[in-house]
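During the reporting period the student researcher (J.K.) took over the structure-prediction task from the postdoctoral fellow and processed the backlog of single-chain submissions. One of the processed entries is reproduced below for the supervisory committee.
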Amino acid sequence: MTTNLKDYFTTGEFARLCNVKKQTLFHYDDIGILSPEVVGENGYRYYSYTQLEIFSTISMLKELDMPLAEIKDYLDHRSPQAFLELLEQQKKEVDEKIKELQWLKRFIHTKMGLTKAGLSIPVGKILLENRPEEYLIVTEYNGEDEDKAITTAMTEHLNFCHSLDIYSPYAIGGMIPVECLKNENNYVYSHFYTKISNAGFPEAVVRPAGVFAVCCDNQGYRNVVEICQKLLNYAAEHGFSPGSHIYEDVLLDEMSVKGYDNYTLKLSLPLMDG
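J.K. obtained the following structure tokens:
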């Protein structure tokens, strides 16, 4: 029986219907995922209207990030049961992507807040903040005030957080013992910490709600001792007892400024009634 080619679409017509280039159809034919239903004696390729459904299926599966080889395998063995299994697997992957996007949205929101705070908070001025209860992942540090040792310890802290599946948008903070500031012109860290949004981890440490004296500086770490002393003097002058540690947070880091010397730090001292 002679095929009536008027009932078929040429490659160009089919490509326009599918909103793709002809080269896409040529490639699909080469890999065997969608071949023309009719090839004329002159070598021209023709597609039937029923193949539009197959093309739509391929496009939908591509939207699910399936490689073409997997799409071909699925089409060669498709069945209602195989389709259900495919959808179940894709649902899990979509749920995981949604989870990642939700984290990314929180990351962007938090970084925007920190950056705005770093740009707007007065430098060198002591402010009082009433803070709610916060949750921290804390690791101890017993090393010296030496850049290599500190960097190693911070990396180990970050790896520990990752082992708990914690990827916080907050930069790693440092805890400076008040005791070490009383008799020295230098400072050391006793712990590193990462803020988290909830207490859903057994490893989380609660930082109690309370009043904090805070002071920011936009010259990196060079003035940390001076600012710490400033906070301690404020506490003494206003009849407060200082907490055991001063918390060092980074508001503007390498993501927005060049080099440590341009970081904006926020130092916070818990205040208690004297």
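The committee noted the following: DSSP finds eight helices and twelve strands in the chain.
J.K. will present the remaining backlog at the next meeting.
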